[in-house]
């Protein structure tokens, strides 16, 4: 265990949505949480204040996870404050184009692939030394059901997240002997996230069709996704690695 006062978890893109819900839940379970953000400093500060008001410990750190120098600086700040990072939850949403393949440029598709994998590469490289040194670590990547089940106009996101998920499986194989588990949480549509507010592409009728296709009768909330992340991040998850948790209410079963 890093330092004193509980495991240290770095949650990327934690100022809102799934990341914020995950940060709050991990803190409630006794972890010290690093709330990474890109531009939403005020929102990240509010997440930290809420965690501290509830008796937890949190630290907001700005970094663009697509830039290796920024990631290294962020991890350095965490090492200075808390001694290491035990848990990585890579949730930061890299911008992407929502359009058909026929309307898409290579810069839009290839750029998303490159940025998605570069961010995952950078944050994972940065946290591994401390995890390997202590022989314990938990890495969780936020994927999407769109990696396996295509939807109109979502080729950039679905393709890049499919690459991320296979990357995670390779890491699970390589890092398992070092006591590090690597897993994927793949939500379906989630309420109260940036994607949920893309009303120019997905209207209320589209949402109702999604609900109708979900056996549990609603879309996910960020807290639903956070619960799956928290399981993978915890001490109890000693023997699951290279797996995908589909948090979609049964909309897609695999």
Automatic annotation (TrEMBL):
Keywords, sorted A to Z: Oxidoreductase
Any one Pfam family match given in the protein's UniProt record, by short name: adh_short_C2
Domain of life: Bacteria
GO MF term list: oxidoreductase activity
Record-stated family: Belongs to the short-chain dehydrogenases/reductases (SDR) family.
Name of the protein: Short-chain dehydrogenase
């Amino acid at each position: 265990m890093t330092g004193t006062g509980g495991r240290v978890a770095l949650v990327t893109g934690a100022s809102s949505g799934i990341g914020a819900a995950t940060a709050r839940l991990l803190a409630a379970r006794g972890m010290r949480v690093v709330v990474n953000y890109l531009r939403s400093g005020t929102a990240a500060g509010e997440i930290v204040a809420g965690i501290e008001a509830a008796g937890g410990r949190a630290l907001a750190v700005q970094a663009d996870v697509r830039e290796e120098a920024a990631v290294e600086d962020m991890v350095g700040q965490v090492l200075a404050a808390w001694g290491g990072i035990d848990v990585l939850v890579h949730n930061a949403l890299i911008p992407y184009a929502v359009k058909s393949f026929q309307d898409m440029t290579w810069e839009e598709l290839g750029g998303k692939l490159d940025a998605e994998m570069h961010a995952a590469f950078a944050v994972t490289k940065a946290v591994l030394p401390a995890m390997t040194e202590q022989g314990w670590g938990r890495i969780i990547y936020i994927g999407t059901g769109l990696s396996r089940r295509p939807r109109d106009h979502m080729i950039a996101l679905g393709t890049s997240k499919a690459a991320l998920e296979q990357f995670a499986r390779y890491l699970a194989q390589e890092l398992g002997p070092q006591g590090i588990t690597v897993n994927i949480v793949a939500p379906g549509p989630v309420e109260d996230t940036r994607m949920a507010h893309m009303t120019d592409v997905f209207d209320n009728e589209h949402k109702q069709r999604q609900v109708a296709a979900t056996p549990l009768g609603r879309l996910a909330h960020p807290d639903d996704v956070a619960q799956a992340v928290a399981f993978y991040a915890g001490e109890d998850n000693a023997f699951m690695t290279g797996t995908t948790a589909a948090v979609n209410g049964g909309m897609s079963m695999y």
